[in-house]
Specification:
Elements: H1 2-42, E1 45-51, E2 66-72, E3 124-131, E4 146-153, E5 158-178, E6 181-193, H2 194-204, E7 209-214, E8 244-249, E9 257-262
Antiparallel strand pairs: 1-2, 3-6, 4-5, 4-7, 5-6, 8-9
């Protein structure tokens, strides 16, 4: 009899334990729902345009890769959009992750075209140069990074920095055949102005060039103007006038005639 009593008591304890767990779970769930409701009521929300998927540089925004998402009104990023129609057919100039708000600072000007063209501002040019893995800093040079361009010229192999803090627009790979063997090279596209493009074109024919990865926050040092020495011209003193002498010439009955003579030193 005692054996059955123990089993019954154990069964009752298990039942009460399960009931307590179920009731506690329901209570916690209801509290979480109430908390979420209170938070939503206290934090005003609005809808902003976000990227619906990961987008690469130069991508065109369409209804397929955009969506709307709730966002706290107090924390809406500057330049955000509230309607998808406002950004349709615009081109992004930076990489965009899925779920990130679309802001005006990351868009190219309207009508600038898609792809690399949208990244070239007024007065600028895009110029591609071939580099190998060593020159390309082992693959660490990527779009939106900045590099210095160093040229190695002459028989002495002297190095000279010809361009500083040049932005990298794109990286591509291409294969060409050299001596019957396929060789893979990388093409780095740099954003330069017209004068820099001419200098770079001239430099690539003089010898090998190297790209040096640099910190984008570092400012380019402007060359200090060389002070020219002002040489004062000495004024020449006027030569002293040679003294003059008067000679009186008397010729018979004629009038007296005076003749001025100058002496030379």
């Amino acid at each position: 009899m005692k054996k059955y009593g123990t089993l019954i008591a154990l069964a009752v304890a298990v039942v009460f334990g399960i009931a307590a767990v179920v009731l506690a779970n329901k209570w916690l769930t209801s509290r979480a729902t109430e908390t979420r409701t209170i938070v939503q009521e206290k934090v005003p929300l609005t809808q902003v345009v976000i990227a619906g998927k990961d987008l690469s540089i130069g991508s065109k925004l369409t209804a397929e890769n955009l969506s709307l998402a709730d966002w706290p009104k107090a924390n809406v990023p500057k330049g955000s959009f509230y309607k998808i129609e406002e950004v349709l057919d615009r081109v992004i100039v930076t990489k965009m992750r899925a779920g990130a708000p679309v802001v005006a600072a990351e868009l190219a000007a309207p009508g600038s075209g898609a792809g690399l063209v949208s990244l070239i501002g007024p007065g600028m040019r895009a110029m591609a140069i071939r580099v190998d893995e060593v020159i390309g800093v082992g693959g660490f040079i990527l779009p939106n990074t900045f590099v210095d361009v160093i040229s190695v010229q002459g028989k002495s192999k002297s190095a000279k920095t010809v361009l500083k803090k040049i932005e990298v627009l794109a990286i591509a790979q291409e294969t060409f055949v050299e001596e019957g063997k396929a060789k893979l090279v990388r093409t780095v596209t740099l954003k330069v102005d017209l004068k820099q493009a001419e200098m770079l074109a001239s430099t690539t024919h003089k010898g090998p060039i190297h790209l040096v990865l640099r910190n984008p926050t570092e400012k380019v040092e402007k060359p200090k103007p060389v002070a020219k020495k002002v040489v004062k011209k000495k004024r020449r003193k006027p030569a002293p006038k040679a003294p003059t002498y008067d000679i009186v010439v008397v010729r018979g009955n004629k009038s007296v005639e005076k003749v001025a003579l100058k002496t030379t030193e």
